[in-house]
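A quick word before the example. In earlier lectures we treated sequence and structure as two separate objects. From today on, think of them as two lines of the same record. Here is TRAP transporter large permease protein written that way.
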Amino acid sequence: MDPATIGLVAFGVMLILLAMRVPIAFALMGVATLAAFAIFAFRTGTFMPERALRATASIVFSNSFDLIHSFDLSMIPLFVVLGNIAYRAGITTAVYNSARVWLQQLRGGVAMASIVGCGGFSAITGSSIACASTMGRICTPEMLRMGYDKRLATASVAAGGTMGSLIPPSVLFIVYAIFTETSVSKLFLAGILPGLLTLIGFVIVVLIWSAIDPKVAPVAAERASRAERLRAALEAWPAVLIFLIVVVGIYGGFFTATAAAAVAVVATTAIGFAQRRLSLRDLWLAVRETCIQSTSIFIVAAAAKIFVAAIALTGLAPALVQTVSEAQLSFPVLLLCICAVYLALGMFLDPIGIMVLTLPLAVPMVEAYGMNLIWFGVVVVKLLEIGLITPPVGLNVFVLSNVVGKAAPIGAIFAGIWRFLCADVIVLGLILAFPAISLVLSEAVQ
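And the structure line, produced from the sequence above:
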């Protein structure tokens, strides 16, 4: 059997298993192992399974071992535990409280504060789902108590939570860097301006929505004094300090990205204990949550590494590149096709699963057209970010629904989310049309 045919069959089986809701790690590992076995067994033209066992086992174990012992992968648990400790210490909550005090006098101000709070949370944690879950507990109940429309109170947090994918540090950028062998530091820089554009776009959505229909966002009755606003701003200093440790530490040449994450974790823990907002029990809970979250990411990443190795054996990527080249597709058309595939998959699959499933084929095609992989990484993460709030699945929507319970059903969240999706699509269009938005900062630092 031809290796390319085996590769196509493997992709088809993979999609069927995912549609059946088989966990992606098991689907990736199982299909990749069987595909590699079939390729080695049919190498001589005759099915000889005894020759395939050792070669298949070598691919499975060597790729898993190499990935787990990757130095770059150590960033993931460090940034995850950083976010968990910052939440337990109330540092991420302080960002939202500060924004709320300053913006609550505006119509829709608390929704804007929720979005800004999500941006601040994202600048520490790097996880969209964690951002939606945490900020949903903090922001949404308060907006509902104030009389905000359920659609705005929930959709603003669900959409704001997606910024954890783009604003550095981002777990998705780390995974992308590992599988494409690109610079994590440059990817972090490349995500800053698109992340800020997304935040501004979401705030504009709230402004327009509340201006057209004032009933969705009542103005807060209480007015904060100048002293209260100053105090609220000062209380957010730990979050600013942690962000500066990561950014200045990395791009000032003081730390590697991994070392910056480690220093930020130590600083966050010290601040939490110094302010008496963090206890040993809180620290233990943060570490336990980190172990669970990081293990799930590692298992998927290890399975994906095996899948990438199996796809490389099939020769499917070069064949696909040749087919696209012979079709003489223009790069904009190819890019639109890639975007359509990512948006379609985003309706059903989780972001890491989509990334590891598509990168083995998408990256060679983009490289064949001579495009910058840092820019393409921003495009991919933005597409995955959109997928987090796209029906019918929308992971952030379901996470938020579980957090708020019966107070806001899923239908109400999706009813408000389309406005924020429009802003997302506009930002995506700007990133595609003007790659400099992503590259200006990353190219400034060599």
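Notice the following. The chain has 22 helices and no strands. We will return to this example when we discuss secondary structure assignment.
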